[in-house]
From TrEMBL:
A Pfam short name: DUF445
PANTHER family from the UniProt entry: INNER MEMBRANE PROTEIN, INNER MEMBRANE PROTEIN-RELATED
Parts forming coiled coils: none
UniProt keyword annotations, A-Z: Membrane, Transmembrane, Transmembrane helix
Residue ranges of the TM segments: 35-51, 63-88, 413-433
Protein name stated in the entry: DUF445 domain-containing protein
Region Disordered, annotated ranges: 1-24
Amino acid sequence: MDTRPEPPASGTAPGAFSDSPADEEKRRGVRQMKVIATGLLLFVALVYGLAEWARSSGAGAWAGYVAAAAEAGMVGALADWFAVTALFTRPLGLPIPHTAIIPTKKDTLGRTLGDFVGENFLSSHVVRTRLRAVGVSRRLGTWLEQPANADRVTSEISTVLRGALTVLRDADVQAVVGEAITRRANAQEIAPGIGKLLGRIVDDGAHRKVVDLVIVRAREWLDLHRDAVLAAVEGGAPGWTPRFVDRRVGERVYKEIVRFVTEMRDMPQHPARDAVDRFLADFARDLRTDPDTRARVERLKGDILEREEVQELIASAWDAVRAMVVAAADDERSELRLRTRAGLLSLGARLVRDERLRGKIDGWLEEAAVHVVTSYRDEITALITDTVAGWDAEQTSRKIEANIGRDLQFIRINGTVVGALAGLLIYTVAHAFGA
């Protein structure tokens, strides 16, 4: 049996539209809610009648409270019924002014209800359902699994990357990189971190290899620059001392320095080594705790960062990175392109086989699509609003009622409940004050 809706008759107006199964389902929901709301009205009417009968029969004070609540509930239910009904038709067929608002003011409502029309045609549920039915992530994975497609995407990515790096102005990027690095360095105090690291090095004894290297190099330097040491000592001697005395003093000083450095080199337990250990440990502690030391380190850091050579070094990092990336993007056998291609192939395989990953990506796509629909609904619904203006008035009213009528019936239910509570409260307060 063919269940497809019949096409409109030839005499149907161009702006008319046929009801969809979804509309029929919504109308069934509206009818169900109307039955519930009307049933609640009949229920409070019955309660009111029984309560009045009980009060007239001397049942007690409680009957008055129940009657007041039921009476106010009926008023609220009737008032909200009238308000809801007046949107779509004339209540009881009476020509009451300002009723049947939607049929009589369709064009105006078509403009002011643009958001509602957008919800009807561009709702998040519709977008999500459609995307899930398409299965974008699975299709993408199947496509990316093909090596030729992965090569194509890799080539396109390389072209876009190369173009972006070409368009960017070096001076602007260098300024941004330099400012970012400098700001980050200035914002972060480095002395405590250096002190903590130095303390660990000293505790582990890792610094001793550096001390050994310095001592060995110092001993080698003394052997190679004996004349320089002697000349320095002789040059610092008073002018009135004889030359040979200066020479003897210089040789003596040189021998003592050599002896001292040699002993430090050959004696692991040399007192000078212990002094170095104590100095480094004290310095590490001061870096962490001493305000003056930390302040001096920060000043030194600032002086270094402000030096022109350092700023040029930071700025030149962009040139190196750009040249490296451009060269890699141009070379089909570069590690960058090979890894990109391998990553695309791996992504395609995972999208085909990993349901959890597909769920995440589909969720991201759905959120993005919903964001676009939500953000640009006004622009999209401008066309829909014009279309609504050409619809038949009665059909438009039916369409809108099918979509929001169920919620409007909740207004009737809420009016009944709130009215009953308000009536009970008013009756209670009145009796409390002796009214």
